[in-house]
Design a protein that fits this description.
CATH topology of the largest domain: UDP-N-acetylmuramoyl-L-alanine:D-glutamate ligase
Number of domains: 3
CATH superfamily of the largest domain: Mur-like, catalytic domain
Strand content: 15-25%
Radius of gyration: 23 Å
Strand order of the largest sheet: 8-7-9-6-12-13-14-15-16-17
Largest sheet: 10 strands, mixed
Number of strands: 23
Length: 491
């Protein structure tokens, strides 16, 4: 039997709870996007809120300061004095953190962020959880956007900042709470995926592939994680599952609730019958509902993968009690999410786009989507699609997906890569090679060049890009501010 994370940390499992009516709360790692949003929500509910983190910078530093929430710089055992009624432990905190050690010594009640979200915000509402290896940020944002514009006043926690209102978190007073179902582990004392805490009433399982090599040793471990989500479903709930994936269907086969499949195959309950590019870069969809009706509506999102995200959202909203025609009509007004096909600007006739794609499947679908559908301000054929990629995740910095990335850039006219940063901890024989990928792409007839670092890549882009090009920059990190530096250099 594996060791109990609670016992290894010195924390008392009996204290992994919150008092009935706490007056004060302390957040370890308060500067994270979700933790900071929760701090604001708890303060709005009348709790005295404070916390700590590494040195913070705008916008989070000013966000918390404007709310009057005290933040201690650095982690120190003394920061926990005076004792709060409950401590919320962020995912960035490790068992040897001095505050975590002091927490165990003081014997204070404690919660993980997912537990706190369920305790104070999800409560007994209709929890709609968007989960899967890909698409969960866009899908959860789309769900929240539609409910918000329908006047349902939802609560939500999304893993990206929505362009509508610049929000990623909202409490709301309506009956629904939308949450991105992250499969990453909950906390150092709870290695289960975050979504097991979210009390799902309606859940979407959009995809299942290997990812997060830092916490999942193999695909079977990822499968087991999503099995936990299925097991959490109540008998009266609904699972919306991607019906074109054997992996997804295997996970939901024994679900304790209703399962509705969506996809392009004939056997799906919600079927994407046709998909055509729209003039503004979005897509026109024709969908068959479970009742056999045909729906025609427009999505502002490019690509088949995003059409499936929209279809999953439509099915989930229907399962949550919303009128299907109303939901379909409201999808067209979705404003999108930052870092998901986000146009960062245009300079010297070059459109610069930011996207979070990092897994080979996400890279493939993003490149394919822009090559066929384009974006507002750029149509396929106007110029070249120049794909720029940085392997930054713990998984992509290894050679695990070296071969898969070679098939992920079809549709790009030129691919420009940087070598993975911060690879010192990855054994040399196990490291990803952008130079090798460039060679493999060239062998496939796709022009590709690899660069040692971002500065060299930027110089190469400024020399290569010309009016009419769309430059698609893909990374799950900040990419050394490449987007703004590129726009400034072009200007």
């Amino acid at each position: 039997m594996p060791p109990n994370p609670h016992e290894m940390s010195g924390l008392d499992p009996a204290l992994n709870t919150a008092p009935d009516q706490p007056q004060s709360v302390y957040l370890m790692g308060i500067g994270g996007v979700a933790m900071g949003a929760m701090a604001a929500g708890l303060k709005a509910q009348g709790l005295a809120v404070r916390g700590s983190d590494r040195p913070l910078y705008p916008p989070m530093s000013t966000f918390l300061a404007d709310l009057g929430i005290p933040v201690a710089t650095g982690f120190d055992a003394a920061n926990l004095e005076p004792a709060a009624d409950v401590v919320i432990v962020g995912n960035v905190i490790r068992a040897d953190n001095p505050e975590a050690v002091r927490l165990a010594q003081m014997g204070l009640p404690y919660l993980s962020l997912p537990q706190a979200l369920a305790r104070w915000f999800i409560r007994d509402r209709i929890s709609i959880v968007a989960a899967g290896t890909h698409g969960k940020t866009t899908t959860s944002a789309l769900l929240a956007s539609v409910l918000l514009r329908a006047g349902r006043d939802p609560g939500f926690l999304v893993g990206g900042v929505m362009n509508e209102g610049g929000l990623n978190f909202r409490d709301g007073t309506g009956p629904h709470f939308v949450v991105e179902g992250d499969e990453y582990d909950t906390a150092f004392f709870d290695k289960r995926p975050k979504f097991v805490h979210y009390r799902p009433r309606v859940a979407i399982l959009s995809s299942l592939e290997f990812d997060h090599a830092d916490i999942y040793p193999d695909l079977d471990a990822v499968r087991s994680a999503f099995d936990m989500l299925v097991d959490e479903m109540p008998p009266g709930g609904a699972l919306v599952a991607w019906g074109d994936s054997e992996e997804v269907l295997a996970r939901v086969a024994g679900a304790p609730c209703m399962v509705q499949r969506y996809g392009v195959g004939e056997d799906n309950d919600w079927r994407l019958m046709s998909l055509e590019p729209a003039e503004d870069g979005g897509a026109h969809l024709t969908v068959r509902t479970p009742g056999g009706e045909k729906l025609n509506f427009t999505s502002p999102l490019a690509g088949e993968h995003n059409a499936l995200n929209a279809l999953a959202a439509l099915a989930a909203l229907s399962a949550a009690g919303m009128d299907t025609d109303q939901a379909a009509g409201l999808i067209a007004g979705f404003g999108g999410v930052k870092r998901r096909q986000e146009v960062r600007g245009e300079a010297r006739g070059v459109l610069v786009v930011d996207d979070f794609a990092h897994h080979p499947s996400a890279v493939r679908e993003t490149v394919k989507a822009l090559a066929r559908f384009g974006l507002p301000g750029w149509r396929p054929g106007k110029g070249r699609l120049v794909a720029v990629f940085e392997p930054r995740t713990n998984t992509s910095k290894t050679s695990r997906f070296q071969a898969e990335y070679a098939g992920a850039f079809h549709g790009a006219d030129l691919v420009m890569l940087r070598e993975p940063p911060d690879v010192e901890e990855v054994p040399l024989k196990e490291r990803f090679s952008s130079a090798k990928l460039a060679g493999d792409l060239t062998a496939r007839g796709i022009e590709a060049v690899a660069f040692a670092d971002t500065d060299a890549l930027l110089a190469g882009l400024l020399k290569e890009l010309r009016a009419g090009d769309l430059c698609l920059v893909m990374s799950n990190g900040g990419f050394d501010d490449l987007h703004e530096r590129l726009l400034a250099g072009l200007a």
